[in-house]
Amino acid sequence: RILDLDLVVRDEDGNILDPEQTSTISLFRAHEIASKQVEERLQEEKSQKQNIDINRQAKFAATPSFALFVNLKNVVCKIGEDAEVLMSLYDPLESKFISENYLVRWSSCGLPKDIDRLHNLRAVFTDLGSKDLKREKISFVCQIVRVGRMELRDNNTRKLTSGLRRPFGVAGTPGV
Predict the structure, then answer these.
(1) Please, are residues 85 and 75 in contact by the beta-carbon 8 Å criterion?
(2) Which of 3, 5, 69, 107 is the most buried (most CB within 10 A)?
(3) CB count, 10 Å around CB of 125?
(4) How many CB atoms lie within 10 A of CB 81?
């Protein structure tokens, strides 16, 4: 019935009723009874699913806002130049970012540019509401952008290619 296919009428034991040996009226009544039973079962399952959805929505409505705390300890990636590390939340099903970027400028020697923030690289992604929690998947994405010359091996200082932003790498968590 769910697939909109032809229904096969069966007796109480689950055997298919043979139209050659069952009267037309008996076959019709058995078909009516089977159709009602299938319809009732579909309605039960539908109402159970709605109750689960209502309970889930009520639970999320009780807590209107959530936050995700991120503490960046280190970036282990041999870049050779200054870099920018951008962290954000991403919805892979809608193919869009759902938060703003948290930016950390990383120096070529492997430390944050702002040395005062060495062990204090923290971000809080706030205002994650019930809509965000209902998403099937949310990924945490970290992008690395190299800032410097066009070519890493280019030692020619006459070329004015310093300070260019080039994508270098990306990492992410699987959708959670």
Answers:
(1) yes
(2) 107
(3) 19
(4) 16
Which uninterrupted H or E stretch holds 148? strand 139-148
pLDDT at 161 over 70: no
> 174: which 2 tokens?
């699987």
Q: What stretch of H or E contains 152?
A: none
Give the SS3 label for residue 106. Answer: strand
Domain residue limits, the chain? 1-62, 66-146
Distance, in Å, from the CA atom of 150 to the CA atom of 155, rounded to the nearest integer, reads 11
Residue 154: predicted pLDDT: 62
Using DSSP's 3-state secondary structure scheme, residue 55 falls into helix
Q: Using an 8 Å Cβ cutoff, are 90 and 97 in contact?
A: yes
115 pLDDT exceeds 80? Answer: no
In the chain, beta strands by DSSP E: 66-72, 82-91, 96-97, 102-106, 121-128, 139-148, 164-172
* Amino acid of residue 137: K
Distance CA 69, CA 64 (A): 17
pTM beyond cutoff 0.70 = no
For residue range 19-35, what is the model confidence (pLDDT) as tens digits? 888 888 888 888 888 88
